[in-house]
Amino acid sequence: MSVFYLILGLVLFIGLVVVHEWGHFIAARRSGVAVEEFGVGFPPKIWGKKIKTAKSKFLFTINLLPLGGFVRLKGENDSATEKGSFGAAPISAKVKIMLAGVTMNLLVAFGLFSVLAAVGMPKLVDNQYTLASDTKTVKEVQNKEVVLVSSVVKGSPAERAGLQVNDRVLQVNSQQITDTGQVAAATKANAGKTIPLVVSRGGQEVSVVVSLNAQNSGDGYLGVGSSSGQSGLELRRSTWSSPLVAAGLIKQFSELTYKGLGTAISSLFKGDTQKASEQVSGPVGIFYILKEGGKLGINFVLMIIAIISLTLALINILPIPALDGGRLFVTLLFRTIRKPLTKAREEWIHGSGFVALMGLFVLITIVDVKRFF
Question: Cα dihedral sign for 162, 165, 171, 172?
């Protein structure tokens, strides 16, 4: 079932981008701006079809890189003057078009948070917003530390015994395990021996027999990496206050997101790249989180998607060139200083921003691979 939830999470993640671009698409058509192409994913193109409507036609494409999407408008530059172009549209229409994607992501986040508040909202942060008078805990956290297998060394006693990543270690040679230090101590005390070991896997207890290394060759006597975590997950349910809880969560998570982003930027200026990298994640990190979240059920997966949708809105609204907020900021800035925003100047500004974002994307991907794999 966790594999199904992972696939569902990835499909919903791609859907968030499609919904974002659909917002631009609808706003443009309602403002009289012609849409030339609606693309799912980034080129190269895999498949395309001309879609005709009563008033217009556009090209719908499926592209190879499933990490985004785009809407290509007629005359996208602010200086375009041709009828039906983005450049020829009034400034009020341009603002609506550029903010439509952000609006759609906010609406999706609000909708998902509202549904989760009604059926069971996972508690992910301390003091997570809720209305105590209309909140019921439907699943309690078991407040005890658990030891998880985080890695299995190839050719080790652990691999030969069939241990798997994310197995929860319960017993080593009949000794109850509650912290990672006990695993190291118990295996060292039984070096070279064949002992029983009990783990929890997918909610089922699994007993194995493992022949430990006689000496520590650098990978321990068992050959696993271990980490500690919490067992269980708290779910909260509300009734009439579900929309209010959703609004409160959007405010709370927005503050946390911008605080984390501020920490990342300040850490970079201080030269603390490790702390900066801890505050951000990319597609690889999202894949890992969805993979792990799938083991906790549909509620947790939907919570992740809701937070990602909110994050897309919060990042896109920032005045960074190439993003929606950056395009809006540049357009309004040149209106304010009463200077023409030429096609060449606009393309240079947003092209430079795009290159910088792609460089950051590659860097974050490398950090995520090292962090999670």
Answer: positive
Q: Which two tokens stand for residue 75?
A: 């005359």
**pLDDT of res. 143:** 42
- Per-residue buried b or exposed e for 211-222, using 16+ beta carbons within 10 Å of the residue's own CB: ebbeeeeebbbb
pLDDT digits (tens, 9 = 90+) for 79-126: 899 999 999 999 999 999 999 999 999 999 999 999 999 999 988 887
Strand residue runs (E) in 160-203 = 168-172, 175-176, 194-201
Annotation: CATH topology of 142-231: Pdz3 Domain (2.30.42)
**In a 10 Å sphere around its CB, with 0-12 CB exposed, 13-18 middle and 19+ buried, how is residue 44 labelled?**
exposed
The alpha carbons of the chain give a radius of gyration, in whole angstroms, of 25
Strands 204-211 and 121-122 come out as unpaired
Sequence-distant (≥ 6) Cβ neighbours of residue 125 within 8 angstroms: 252, 256
* 243 CB neighbour count, 10 Å cutoff: 15
Pick the more confident residue, 209 or 290.
Answer: 209
Average pLDDT over residues 289-317: 86
Distance from C-alpha of 266 to C-alpha of 263, rounded to nearest angstrom: 5
Cβ atoms 98, 332 nearer than 8 A: no
Residue 298: both structure tokens together: 């549909």
Q: Which range scores top for mean pLDDT: 217-226, 274-283, 287-296?
A: 217-226
Contacts of 132 (CB under 8 A, 6+ apart): none
Task: Please report the sign of the dihedral spanned by the C-alpha atoms of residue 211, residue 214, residue 215, residue 217.
Answer: negative
Please, is 294 exposed, middle or buried when counting C-beta atoms within 10 Å of its C-beta (0-12, 13-18, 19+)? Answer: buried
Whole-number Å distance between alpha carbons of 271 and 12? 36
Range with lowest mean pLDDT among 104-118, 191-205, 273-287 = 273-287
From the list 105, 77, 104, 99, the residue with the least C-alpha distance to 319 is: 99
The pair of three-digit structure tokens given for residue 182, joined into one six-digit string:
């006990």
Cβ-count burial 52-62 (b if 16+ within 10 Å, e if not): eeeeeebeebe
Q: What is the pTM of this model?
A: 0.75
Alpha helices for 147-272 (secondary structure H): 157-161, 180-189, 242-270
